[in-house]
Amino acid sequence: MQKPLIIITGKDGQLGFELSQIQNHYSNQFDFLFTNRSELDLMNEASIEAFINKHQPKYFINCAAYTAVDKAETEKEIAYAINATATAIIAKTCATINCQLIHISTDYVFDGEKKAPYLPLDETSPLNIYGASKALGEKLAIENNSQSIIIRTSWVYATHGKNFVKTMLKLMNERDEINVVADQIGCPTNAADLASAIMQIVLKLNNDNAFKHSNLYHYSNTGNISWFQFAQSIKEIANLNCKVNPIPSAAYPTPAKRSNYSVMDTSYIADDFGIEIKDWKTSLQLMIGSL
To answer: Which of 43, 99, 203, 246 satisfies CB 3.0 to 4.6 Å to 182 for a cystine?
Structure first.
């Protein structure tokens, strides 16, 4: 009997890479097809539909996105094409072949005005083009495929690719002191943990088709910190001597406005799928240890 196929976009990104690292754990149950831009161009609308129809996946995990937050302010059309238009086509095509879409989104859909962790059903109100394009992508995914599952995540890092942890390690090895924003609060996500959670969700869906889930979920490691506290912990775990100075966001202006608070409530995903979520520091120690 043929195994269900899982298509995963964004194989060169942090999450796509981490999913590729654990595919062998699930090779008895599923076949995997990982794609990047050269194999599936999300700017080419016709090719998306043709690709999905050709391969007939049972699950489609969309990790691909336009993620250059500041660049999106001037590349608005590209950001919307990849993060919104392509998502709508993926969702619609998946619906026609009864394929489960799992679409990865972001904490950037929120404005940070809330003082308690954001719930999945809280109203979105993005502060920048990147966030707005991702919020529209979520909406279009659900409108075009009512079975779509959206997983919002935040502050993603991994052993692969560019991210805050690797940037801090590099700078701390090169400099005597660095400045890091201290008034933006959120929670880091180790992409390896998110990859594992996604596969737990796929297993649950595959074994229990009658299970009725929400469309919207949040996933990050537990706890909440500032970027400054994140940097301090990276320094301590890596045993480096660089001095880390806290600065306000106003001292580090960026083209795209950032939220001051983007902590997300992850209880829905834990309850619905039985996922145990590590605290951020434990996960950070594991990642730095593996480097």
So the answer is: 246
Cα dihedral 275→200→24→148 (10° resolution): -140
Secondary structure of the chain in HEC code, one letter for each residue: CCCCEEEEECCCCHHHHHHHHHHHHHCCCCEEEECCCCCCCCCCHHHHHHHHHHHCCCEEEECCCCCCCCHHHCCHHHHHHHHHHHHHHHHHHHHHCCCEEEEEEEHHHCCCCCCCCECCCCCCCCCCHHHHHHHHHHHHHHHHCCCCEEEEECCEECCCCCCHHHHHHHHHHHCCEEEEECCCEECCEEHHHHHHHHHHHHHHHHHCCCCCCCCEEEECCECCEEHHHHHHHHHHHHCCCCEEEEECHHHCCCCCCCCCECCECCHHHHHHHCCCCCEHHHHHHHHHHHC
Check 108, 130, 219, 268 and give the catalytic one. 130
Please confirm, yes or no, whether 261 is among the known catalytic residues. no
Q: How many CB atoms lie within 10 A of CB 236?
A: 14
- For residues 259 and 275, give the distance between their C-alpha atoms in angstroms, rounded to a whole number: 27
Q: What percent of the chain has pLDDT over 70?
A: 98
What whole-number distance in Å separates Cα of residue 15 and Cα of residue 28? Answer: 22
Is pTM, for the whole model, over 0.70? yes
Name the fold adopted by 5-161+189-220+263-277: Rossmann fold (3.40.50)
Burial class (CB in 10 A: 0-12, 13-18, 19+), 153: buried
Q: What is the pLDDT of residues 148-174, one digit of tens each?
A: 999 999 999 999 999 999 999 999 999
